[in-house]
Amino acid sequence: MISNEVRSGSIGAMAGVYVVLAFLASGVLLVVQANSGIDPAALSLTQFGPAVAVGVVALVWRQRLVALLPVPASWDVVRGHGVAVVVSCAAIGLATAAMASDSMELHGPAAVGGVPFAVFVLLQLVGAAGEEAGWRGFLQPVLESRYARPVAIGITGVIWAVWHVQAFAAGPAVAAAFLAAVLGFACVLGFLAVGGYWQRALIGTVGHWLINVALYLVMGDDTLGLPQLYYYAVAALAVGAAVWISRRGSGVRAAG
Prior knowledge:
Blueprint: H1 4-34, H2 49-60, H3 62-68, H4 75-100, H5 117-132, H6 135-144, H7 149-163, H8 165-168, H9 172-192, H10 197-219, H11 228-247, H12 252-255
Helix pairs in contact: 1-2, 2-5, 4-10, 4-11, 5-10, 6-7, 6-10, 7-9, 9-10, 9-11
C-alpha cells in the first residue's frame, strides 16, 4: 500500500519530470526537423516529444507508475466513448466550417507539405499518437490520482496549450484564442478518454487526429490565423462544455 505522502511525491515528481522532458525533447526534435527535410506542415516531429518523455518516466518510475495509472475499462465502454469522440470532433469541425464559410474560402482536401492529402491524413494519425501517449495517456490520469477529473483536465489542457510555444509568440489575441480552443478540446478528450493507459491514449489519438484533419480542411495549415482561430475556439468551447455537462454525475471517475 502506497502512503499518501509517497503517493503525492510520486505524482508530483513524475508529472514534473514528464513536463520538463516533453518540452526539452520537443525542442531537440524541432532542431532535427530543421535538418530532416520533412515539412512540418505534413508532420511535425515535435509531436513525438510527449512520447519520448513518457518513455523516460516509465523507465525511471515503472513500479510506481503501474500503481498510479487507472485499470482498463471494458472495450464496450471504450468503443462507446470512441464514438462520442468522433461525433464531438465532427460537431466542432462542422461548426467551425459553418462560421468560417461566411468570411473565408474553406481550404478543402489539398496536398500539403509536399505530400498528397491521403498521406497527410496518415501522418497526422502518427503525430496524434505521439502526443496522446503523453497528454491523455499519461499526464491526465496521473493527475487524476490526486485531483478531481475536471482539475486534472484543466491542468493538462493548460500545459498542453503552453507546449505549443508558437501560439503564445503570435500575440495576445492569438494566444488567448488558442488557449480557449485547447481547453475546450481538452474537455472533449479528457472526459471521454477512459480506461487504462493504452485505451486512453487510443481514444485521445482518434480525437486528436480527427480534429487536426478537420481543421486542415477548414483553414489549411494557417491554424493560428484570425478570425478562423476564433471560430474554432467558440466551437471547441461549446462542444467541450456539452461533453462536460453530459458526463457530470455519470460516474466518469469510476469508469476511467
